[in-house]
Protein 1
Amino acid sequence: MNITYHGHSCVQIAAGGYSIVIDPFLSGNQLAVTKPESIKADYVLLTHGHSDHIADALPIAQSNDATIIAIYEIAGYFGAKGAKTFGLNLGGSYKFDFGKVTMIQAFHSSSIMEGDQIIYAGMPAGFIIEIEGKKILHAGDTALFSDMKLIGERHKIDLAFLPIGDTFTMGPEDAVLAAEWFNAKAIVPIHYNTFPPIVQDAEQFVSALAGKGIKGNAMKPGETLAL
Ligand code: NI
Ligand code: MN
């Protein structure tokens, strides 16, 4: 399978003829090199309701007739806007045609801003996506929490996408510990450099991982890896 990093927290998995896009935020991201119009998707996975994760979800879902997979409240929100949706909740798994998705917890907040309204968007989440015999973890926006160790014991993670930006999520030091606890074979840092408060040195993070014997890969926006 091929996995493309589109900047910020946006990750695209292409496997078995399916395209799965997580947290599309392209039109508002100056570092993104891909336009939302050029994204082909069968499924759009959303970790939580903040705009830097859902901004392009509805247009991508509607133009591709794709299904949005998110926590129950966000699925309801986009369902009311006419999108095809599938709601999960924390700890739950579901076998889709492309593979199995498990919703894991994230320690963050979640809401959707619409004008001057703040809409309740349920709990923030991360995902474990089991596809072609591999397990890919997307942590969403999260602080460090010790149950990452439990998740790492419960699942053999091949590749994990972890936020390192600090300010709104864990920073690089906590993300190194998260990488140890998730016990993934490889780590890709996300959610950094998009805005001034989350500027980080991803290569320094990768070096810190190497110091713990963990493989890191600071992918550039638009870069693809084969798994
Ligand atoms: Ni957030
Ligand atoms: Mn965010």
Protein 2
Amino acid sequence: MRQHLCILSVALSLGLWARQSPSEAPRSAPDAPTQPQSRALPLLQQAEDLDPAPDRVLVRLEAAPSASGPWLYAYNGLNPGPLIRARKGDTLTVEFTNRLGAASTIHWHGLKVPFAMDGVAWRGAPVGDGESFTYTFTLNQAGTFWYHPHFNTENQVDGGLYGALVVEDEADPRPDQELVLLFDTEQEYDAQQDALPDGDPGRHGHGHARLGPRWRVNGQSAPLIHSASGGQVTRVRLINASNSAYLSLRWPGLRQIGSDQGLLAALATPESIVLGPGDRAEAEWLLGGEGFSVVTEPWSLNGGPALGDPVELVQVQLQEPAPAPQGLAWPFSGEAPGLDPGYADILYQFQGSDRTGVWLINGERFPNVTVEEVPFDAEVVLEVRNLSPTEHPFHLHGLAFEVLSINGAPPPRYMLEDTLNLRIRDRVRLRVRADNPGDWMTHCHILPHADDGMMTVLRVLEP
Ligand code: C2O
Ligand code: CU
């Protein structure tokens, strides 16, 4: 039975490639060299599209307690949940059924959806146990997104409820292979509960920092082996779905092509890619020579680069030696960063500390917050200041923001984001076009911080 499931999932992922690139022979699935400590990197299982219309994608997601394994919950019995794949311009419909035994929602992280589809329990009820809700919206952005509950979020995301959502742009060149890597840390919630004598799930954020996170990639404990063919180009989509752990990813010849909101304005070749919780990036692997390892360097939310050895996450092994291919002609926009106008319309100050366990924005604790209102389609400058001794990934729902300055200096390149890490004492200015009416949650994506109150609301008025 287990084997059948494996064959089925491989067939599903190969089917995807056959459908999208009929001229390319599908690559064989990674076959695991039998080494005791390293297993094959699992590919994410793709959700079946139940609507035959070419511009509509219909998916069913059922959330329920997990039948096995370390997870508390699963979507469609899978950890991570199924990969949803669609094209820019498609209408995505997700029929959600909640069988968790507790209320839940689904939030579409990074997507500009109508407010009623945003999956938050502000000005509306969550989806009760045994109930269903149909989410439907048009996908107007291309990029690497993800979905997760936005109710009792820390518990439910850590318990295993999350999945990747990829929106393709038909203008992009076709790589030989595409890989989605969803990173998570092992059982933060459980480990913390175990670590506390009284099992009080209300205190988080202290337990795992000492141990150092143990990473999973696509649900499997790292390190993992990915077998590929030399001479090929792989588009790699990276998502940090951890509740509170940071990645600082590095490999030789790193080429970053995208971030939260699709392709970058130009190719970037940073030393490493730092992804806070909720953050995404896209990279291009030009496979040649010996193969290489993807590692994460220790990064502490109490101050960034930390002592310790890099941890190997994925070892890329090349089956046939071949010279590395050229990079693809990604349609980068070439856009320059916008100018900081020297003022801000709205100021958010992030405050709090591990010592007090109280996390605030502008001295307020969600849901007792001041709702800032902006007119529809206005251009608004936000200033976000981190006044706490901890880093925070700032996240805004329903809109995207352009980074205008970081600590008074222009950003290294044009940056359009929905999640941006604020290091200790950082002060950033962000430009938002208020083109989507609704009450948009604005919060730290370290889920224990958000659940403890580090969340507010930016209201875009109806036109
Ligand atoms: Cu990833 Cu408020 O969400
Ligand atoms: Cu935070």
Protein 3
Amino acid sequence: MNITAKTKVCMVIGDPVEHSLGPVIYNEIYKKLGIEDQFVYVASNVTTDMIEDCIKGVRAMGIRGVSCTIPHKQAVMVFLDEIDGVAARIGAVNTIVQNDGKLKGYNTDWHGVIKPIEQITSLTGKKVALLGAGGAARAAGFGIADRGASLTIFNRSFDKAQKLANELGAFAKTLEELEGVKSADIIINTTSVGMSPADKETPLPKEFITSNHLVFDAVYTPYATQLMRDAKEQGATVIHGTEMLIYQGIEQFKLYTGHNLPVETMRQTLHKILNIEAGK
Ligand code: ATR
């Protein structure tokens, strides 16, 4: 470690925050890129009632970058000097960057969904089925709508699906209508169904998946969710939830450090931390 008085501090704030992979990943990458004397990354558990004081502290201490996770992505917004246009439309900030005492909020979550898909196929003109209507669905939905895809949102609570669909010019459906995913080109799961320890569960019956589908699961623990295993068995193309972390992180890393992080560097680092075997 080569921390000096010039080292810039970046951090993640959330409640809870202990599970965050940010400090392990980013500090490892600072080392790999040989910039560990320039940047250090830490985590802080910040409760909602302390968020205003926290942002004042960030400003006062010249913290370079702040990653915001649950439940702060909306709450931080009023305390910032500027909000990037996309983040304003999504209504959530997951990245704050400080320059000359000014705090600007960004949203890089939507990159995490759009970019991995665009490595495989264009979204324009495609039919996309989005499972879930929470925070992750919102960021994904704005990206999908932005690319000119036709979007249908399936959610357990229909009113939430309807509300998000109205904002995005999308269709809303209940889980009883889930068989409708058969006509989609791309299926994206943003619900928490299948997440460890409930890793035998899946948000989608296997028989609804075909070999024509591209299936993306935002759940990344376990790496091979039941949905990913079913989709592979059905001959579909799959994108694991780790890809979302990778592409979101690359965008965030650039905002904090100015460095273009190679995808492979990020992927190798994350897979090593999560004990994911190469090629699995
Ligand atoms: P995130 O920020 O990760 O998107 P969230 O905002 O709490 O988390 O959203 C969770 C999503 O998973 C919601 O769409 C939720 O459905 P409801 O809107 O009906 O709550 C969905 N979800 C969670 N558990 C589910 C379950 N057991 N079956 C179906 N959907 C579920």
